[in-house]
Description:
The chain is an all-alpha fold. The protein has helices at residues 17-29, 33-51, 57-80, 92-95, 98-121, 126-135, 140-169, 171-178, 182-195, 197-215, 223-242. Helix content is 71%, strand content 0%.
Amino acid sequence: MNTASDQDVPRKVAASQGFQWVAAGFRLYRKNPLLLSAAFGLMFGAIMGLGLIPLVGGSLSDLASPLMVAGFMAAYRALDRSKELELPHFLAGVRGPVIPLMTVGAVQLLGALVIGQIMLAMGFDPQAVMDTAKGGKASPAEMQAMMNQILPAVLVGMALFVPLIMATWFAPALILFGGARPTTALGVSLKAVARNWLAMLTNSIALGLLLFIAALVPLLLGLLVAMPVLFGSLYTSYQAIFAVWADDTAPVQAGDSLA
C-alpha cells in the first residue's frame, strides 16, 4: 500500500505506456464519440474564428488554446468517472482558472515569437522557402544553397521548441486538476516529460501515426476523431504520471489530483 506522502510524483512509467495511453484515450472516446467530436469541431472553429480577427487574432487563438485543452480534460474526467458527459464540461477552463490557463497560452505565444525571431536572425526566410517551393524553377544548386542556409536555423528552432512543448504539455491539466500556479505547472510538466521521455516518445509516434491517417480522410474529417482521441491520450497520460494510488494494483481513478 502506498500513501500520498510516499508516492513519487511525477511518476516514471514504462516506455510501452506511450502506446497504451492512445488506446485508453480511444476507449474513453468511444463512450461518447458524437459529443466529443462535435465539441472539438465547435471549439476548434471558435479558436480559428478568433484567428481571423485583424492584428490580434493569432495572439487570441494562442491564449485561448489552453482553455480548450482544459475543457477536454474535464470532459474525459467525467467519462472516466462514468458520469454523463454534457456540454458544460467543455467549458471548465472558461468557468474555472481562466487567467492561469491563459498565462500558459501567453508563454506558448511569447516562446514561439522569440524562437521565430531567433530563426529569422539565423537566416531562415519562410516566404523565400514557400516561393521557391511553389515556383519549382530553382536549380539543384540553388535548392542546395537554400537548404544549407536554413538548416542550422531549423535545427536550432526545433531544439528550442522541444522544451517549450514539454513545459506546456501537462500544464493545463495541472492547473485545472491540481490547482497549480502557472509557473509551477510549467516546471512540473517539463520535469514530468523529461522523466518519461521514452514513454512520451512512443506516445508521440503513436499520435503522429494517428494524425497522419486522419489527414488522409477527405475534408480533414478524420481530425474530428483523431484530435479528441489525442486529448483522451493526454488525459490518460496525466493520470498515469500524476495520479496518486492507494494501491499500485488498483485501476487508475480519475479525480486524483497532484499531491
